[in-house]
Every structure is written in C-alpha cells, then in structure tokens.
Design brief:
The complex is a heterodimer of chains A (113) and B (115). With 113 residues, chain A is an all-beta fold. Chain A has strands at residues 4-5, 10-14, 19-25, 32-38, 45-51, 56-59, 62-67, 72-77, 86-93, 102-103, 107-112. Chain B is mostly beta strands and 115 residues long. Helices cover 0% and strands 50% of the residues of chain B. Chain B has no helices and eleven strands. Classes of the chains: A mainly beta (113), B mainly beta (115).
Amino acid sequence: DQQVKQNSPSLSVQEGRISILNCDYTNSMFDYFLWYKKYPAEGPTFLISISSIKDKNEDGRFTVFLNKSAKHLSLHIVPSQPGDSAVYFCAASASNTGNQFYFGTGTSLTVIP
Amino acid sequence: GAGVSQSPSNKVTEKGKDVELRCDPISGHTALYWYRQRLGQGLEFLIYFQGNSAPDKSGLPSDRFSAERTGESVSTLTIQRTQQEDSAVYLCASSPRTAYNSPLHFGNGTRLTVT
C-alpha cells in the first residue's frame, strides 16, 4: 500500500519559470516530510524538509508547502534552472513509525533551456 | 568528507546464486538503512539498523534476504538464491542520529541484475 504518492511521473518547465511538484499522503500520523533530488546513477540527495507544525519552509529557490487537512505537499522551484532537471522524491515519516521513511515513486523534472 | 560508499556499483548474477552487497556509511552515523528501487517504482524500505542492531526488519521481502552491521560501521546485505524479481538498485543510507526527522544520506547504489 503506497502511503506516499506522486501522481505525476514527469514534468517539463521552461527555464526561468516556476516548477511545482506535488505529493499526497494517506497516513495522518506523518509529521515530517522531505524532498530528495536524484540524478541518474547517483543516490538521492536531501533537498528540503518541513515539520507538520509549519505550513511553509523556504530555502533559496526551493519552497515546500504543507496542507495537512488535504494531506498534500508541494515543492516549488523558482526560477527553474536546467541543472534542476532530475527525479524528485517526496518522503514522509512519523515519530511512531520506527524511524522508517516512506517514499513516493518520484517525478522526473525537465527544465528546458 | 566522504559520503556513503556502496560496492559493487553493478552486479550481474545468475538466478540461484548468492550475492553480497556492501555499504560503508558516513563515519559516526548511528543509523543505517537499506532501500531498493525496482524499475519504474519508488524506494522500498528493506531494513534499518540502530548501531549494530536491527529494530525493524519488516521490509525484508523474504527469508532469502538478510543483513548485518558490525562495528557500528559497515553493513552487508545478502540475498540468497537470487531470483529475477530481485533485480533492482539497492540503496544504502545513513543518518547521524536515529530520529524520524533526521534526513538520510544515500550512497549511489548497487545495480543488481539477475539473469
């Protein structure tokens, strides 16, 4: 049972525009959410996170928004750059899940120069 | 500093053979995780170590899979009698502390192909 879902397998955006990647989850006990970025032949690298006590966290060009009532989070990248082209994974965890992180299936972002 | 190191980077094996995958975590990281990613799918949790013990083995797909960690450092994931459905990228990750809100640092993975 997929507890974290990324329903868009791919997304293409023009350079300079905003990229919006979406993620939905089903487990209301999740209270920590992360985004990872993955280039081909490399492992995922941590990008940004948000705790459930917040609804927004910003780090440079990257902002994560959390809507707990909708069990939805999104990652905004603005302005998008060609180097942002990668697969983005959403992940979630909860203090009572034994330190396990649940990952989505990923969204492949292509930023067109 | 050095990141998480996994070896081999690629492994091709015949169905029925045993394989061992190695992970060297970041020095001092207490927590160590194994995940796998099958083609077109997300990351699937396999097992987690806190120090040398494994409080959560719930993700191991079958008794053909086992893992150990020694010296709160190196970990090996062993797959016995490999099957074609075991083909995947096996990812190891470590974290400085065992907490649900401590992001994971991943290695580049071992791509396992069972023919």
